[in-house]
Amino acid sequence: xxxxxxxxxQDRVVEQLTAAARAARATVLAGRTADAPAGNASLMTHAWLxxxxxxxxxxxxxxxxxxxxxxxxxxxxxxxxxxxGFCDGxxxxxxxxxxxxxxxxxxxxxxxxGDMRELVMRASSYPTGGRWSVIxxxxxxxxTESAANALLxxxxxxxxxxxWLLCAPSVQDVLxxxxxxxxxxxxxxxxxxxVADMLVRRDGVEPETARLAALAGQGDVERARRLAVxxxxxxxxxxxxxxxxxxxxxxxxxxxxxxxxxxxxxxxxALAETQDAKETGDLRAAYGATEGSxxxxxxxxxxxxxxxxxxSRATRTRRETLGVALLDLLGFYRDVLALQFGAGGPLSNExxxxxxxxxxxxxxxxxxxxxxxxxxxxxxxxxxxxDPLLAVEAMTVALRAG
Length: 402
Fold this sequence. Notes:
The protein is mainly alpha-helical. It has helices at residues 11-30, 58-69, 88-95, 113-123, 145-156, 176-179, 192-203, 207-217, 221-229, 231-241, 243-246, 250-287, 299-340, 353-361, 365-383, 388-401, and strands at residues 47-51, 101-104, 133-137, 162-167, 183-186.
């Protein structure tokens, strides 16, 4: 299985990255650096920026490219495509254990300057395997201003055989000084048919289940996969899609808002229950602390830093859960609007046609547009750190008013 197989509906991007990986291999064989192109080596560069809508696969594409750069398949000498998926280079990159590939993803709300300075220092070293030192920064839009300036130094003064792979929702989310030094790749929203086909082939999902999950995923491949294989994810989506039918009175609005926020909080607590306990145990073991004994010197500060990161991760988990719920609501009202305008074609929520028709018949297109704006306003409020319950309550009341 090739490393490119998980990139659904991104043929143009795969073609560009494959050509760049070939050029990179030629550069290595010729003993040149990425910033000294010769022939088709100009297809390769030291910094890449992957952008696209949520779920399109920016990080998947970056990870596949990293694997292709480290690919050691013997078929390459016969003209094979870099990124075979079976060799030691591809396998270790995909498993996250390759010595020359650093994968950066914050559990918190931002990536700090300390972490980025450490990465820039790492980027100055020569790859241990003699190929490429790859630094993949997921969610580059979460860099603080100081961290972004530190990254700029690494991208501005590239080291030989170092490649930066940055992922962000859009090019506007990255500093102009950084994006001007990167080669831009824009991924598109994959077609529902392509996502459904992938679910059937890769996950063994029944065709009808795959079709409905692909439509409900609204172009987000991972979201579609979860809806296809995870009963809990499907149940939570259905719970969210009941909200438009439950906001007939103020009591229903407040109850729906409370349920939505409680679900997000439960998700964060479930993650903390397993991950936080393991991290704390690993930290105590690293300091040699035993149960009931006095904490070793320096451990108190480390525990405080860990608790801060865990709290930040819990906040992010709640936001992400609420964000998914709001996207489901947006998809619901977009389908309502399509029915009100008599648009043809499949809906994102085909399995909820009866509920959609009911809501569409109870109001006008103007009502639906105002409800869509209420959901978008809730998203903006959450981005501004408004209390989640207050933001969601304001949204559900606005949904009732239309």
